[in-house]
């Protein structure tokens, strides 16, 4: 099992930046993939970015490419999401997710989830 705790959310103006963190504990040596998802009110949860924890290969939702950067610190067992040039449409609850076997943008493929951290972007 893996436990995930997100932090770093907050309220920023459009064009601003935030860095989200996700601290993992438990059987972290088994982690194969970690990702960030978000869910805005009235919308389905969507994948934002994911990363293979061993190789560091990362993939992004088209709308965040060039603005968001996902990274993973193996020594600290911490996942990050650096968000820049934030837009009002980026506002959502952001969730960290992890899995031992699969790695893609589909939320149903992740077995472990954090509680979420809120990101608010004002125009």
- Distance, first to last CA: 40 Å
Helix content: under 10%
Counted beta strands = 11
Strand content bin:
over 45%
Largest sheet: 7 strands, mixed
Tell me the radius of gyration. Answer: 13 Å
Number of helices: 0
Low-pLDDT regions: none
Strand pairing plus helix content: what structural class?
Answer: mainly beta
Q: Mean pLDDT score, rounded?
A: 97
| Overall 3D shape | globular
Element order: H for helix, E for strand = EEEEEEEEEEE
Q: Secondary-structure blueprint of this entry?
A:
Blueprint: E1 2-7, E2 10-13, E3 18-26, E4 33-39, E5 46-52, E6 58-60, E7 68-73, E8 78-83, E9 92-99, E10 112-113, E11 117-122
Parallel strand pairs: 2-11
Antiparallel strand pairs: 1-3, 3-8, 4-5, 4-9, 5-6, 7-8, 9-10, 9-11
What does this structure look like?
The termini are far apart. A hairpin with a 4-residue loop joins strand 7 and strand 8 (78-83). The relative contact order is 0.32. This protein is mainly β. 0% of the residues lie in helices and 52% in strands. The protein is built from no helices and 11 strands. The model has no long low-confidence stretch (mean pLDDT 97). Strands 2, 4, 5, 6, 9, 10 and 11 form a 7-stranded mixed sheet that branches. A 4-stranded antiparallel sheet has the order 1-3-8-7, with no helix packed on it.
